[in-house]
């Protein structure tokens, strides 16, 4: 039997992390993975991390994390340049003042290949 899809956590740099949840990931698995990841983030980074949700609004993320920027980007629609610019500014404003600040880019979608959102946004910081 195939193991259910899980959230993919990738350290792009020491200060930029991406979380990608594949479309086939069941809700129960997503929530369990998310709880484990939040515990890891808190133990490793305390309150020095900010989560940016690059998908539709997600109340669960807001409830589990102390600092969330919820973009509300809609599946299958490209964000506007203003929206992308706003996220890039938020990233810079969070990372620049404190070398201990960590950024977590989250993307959960119902249809592939939206992983490009996290790849595109994180590439701006490289």
TrEMBL record:
Domain of life, per lineage: Eukaryota
What GO cellular-component annotations does this UniProt entry give? focal adhesion
Q: Under which name does UniProt file this protein?
A: Phosphatase tensin-type domain-containing protein
């Amino acid at each position: 039997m195939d193991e259910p899809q899980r959230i993919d956590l990738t350290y792009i740099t020491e200060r930029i992390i991406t979380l990608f949840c594949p479309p086939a990931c069941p809700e129960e698995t997503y929530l369990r993975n998310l709880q484990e990841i939040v515990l890891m983030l808190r133990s490793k980074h305390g309150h020095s991390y900010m989560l940016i949700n690059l998908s539709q609004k997600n109340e669960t993320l807001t409830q589990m994390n102390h600092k969330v920027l919820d973009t509300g980007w809609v599946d299958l629609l490209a964000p506007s340049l203003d929206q992308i610019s706003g996220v890039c500014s938020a990233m810079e404003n969070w990372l620049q003042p404190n070398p201990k600040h960590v950024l977590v880019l989250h993307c959960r979608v119902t249809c592939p290949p939206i992983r490009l959102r996290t790849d595109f946004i994180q590439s701006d910081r490289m």
